[in-house]
Design goal:
Length: 357
């Protein structure tokens, strides 16, 4: 009898230990992912990826220093985006006129909407938020903690408007007055980077590796970044589009330092002394964590950092034939000359009539 009582006590004790054992097993962290190696023993980052996301660069002030959204917040934002896309994709009523389709402000980005620069058919910004290890992000900028750009130094002046100047004046005197994207010289915004940031469309990148170089083919416009792995920076007097990028491996992470960027390309206005540090880490079979830090003491009072998810995608990077269809640039220049001519003629006519009186 005593034997059975002892066995029962042992059994009950074991059963009582099961919940604690289960909690220990659940609390055990998942093993970190390690990227496969290529033929040179490097972490293999090769593939085609998209950065399309509805996560903005700058955080909505209502989230304060919180950059991880709750499930309810994330679901609401993604559902609202899906509904907006569905409305924009709906067929246009055949009887509608230009006046019926008028959109006074052309959308929050200033160019998207009916009767504006782009309709929904041209856009592909994605419908989901950035997801890093199950965390849905409120902004790309992670530092400063409030998700905003740091203060600008007094001598830097105000930040230029995205996409280049919008006032007429000298902007239409020469092609050089227009933004790099309008001139088909470089990607709009900072798609090619560094830092490489998502836009409203053409957010695809292809990464190709060799023993001594990592090349990134950027879908927007026609840019290819060359990251040298066995070299030193060029003299500071040599300024390059997309800068001079030197990379090295730190474990599974490709660390890239870029200097010598042309000041016209700097994000929200850069200086010749700008430096960008990027970190590419494959955190899963189909995802790369892309982190960056921008240091520009001539423009900002402190560095700023951010993180973007590069998600694997099928298909290829298509050619962006910008110059072949860039009739708008000559049209804008010609339009400005026509306006100037009309103004001179009106002034001359008014002056002549004034002289007769």
């Amino acid at each position: 009898m005593m034997r059975y009582l002892l066995l029962a006590a042992v059994s009950l004790s074991a059963l009582g230990a099961l919940p604690a054992l289960a909690q220990q097993q659940q609390a055990k962290p998942a093993a970190p992912y390690h990227a496969p190696r290529n033929g040179w023993g490097q972490p293999d980052l090769q593939g085609t990826y998209t950065t399309a996301t509805i996560t903005p660069l700058i955080r909505d002030a209502k989230y304060g220093t919180r950059n991880v959204l709750t499930k309810q917040e994330a679901d609401a934002l993604e559902q609202a985006t899906r509904e907006q896309v569905a409305r924009a994709d709906a067929p246009t009523p055949p009887e509608a006129t230009v006046k019926d389709l008028k959109n006074a402000d052309c959308g929050p980005d200033g160019i998207s909407g009916f009767n504006c620069g782009y309709n929904q058919g041209w856009k592909d910004p994605g419908t989901t938020l950035i997801d890093i290890n199950g965390e849905k992000r409120a902004s790309i900028i992670t530092s400063p903690a409030n998700g905003q750009f740091p203060a600008r130094v007094a001598s830097a002046g105000a930040a230029p408007r995205p996409g280049g100047p919008r006032s007429r004046g000298a902007r239409t005197d020469n092609p050089e007055g227009f933004s790099l994207g309008e001139r088909c010289l470089l990607s709009f915004g900072s798609s090619a980077g560094p830092p490489m940031l998502p836009l409203m469309y053409n957010n695809t990148y292809q990464i190709v590796q060799s023993k001594d170089e990592v090349a990134i083919d950027v879908e927007m416009v026609h840019d290819v970044r060359h990251i040298r792995l066995t070299d030193k920076h060029l003299p500071s007097s040599i300024k390059l589009w997309m800068g001079d990028s030197i990379g090295h491996w730190e474990g599974d992470t490709l660390v890239v330092e870029t200097t010598n960027m042309r000041p016209e390309q700097g994000l929200r206005g850069g200086s010749p002394n700008q430096k960008v540090i990027e970190r590419f880490t494959r955190i899963g079979p189909n995802k790369i964590s892309y982190r960056f830090t921008v240091e520009d003491p001539d423009i900002y009072t402190a560095p700023f950092s951010g993180e973007v998810a590069m998600n694997a995608t099928k298909g290829q990077v298509y050619e962006y034939a910008c110059h072949e269809g860039n009739y708008a640039l000559t049209g804008m220049l010609a339009g400005a000359r026509a306006e100037e001519k009309a103004a001179r003629e009106a002034q001359a006519t008014g002056g002549a009539k004034g002289g007769e009186n």
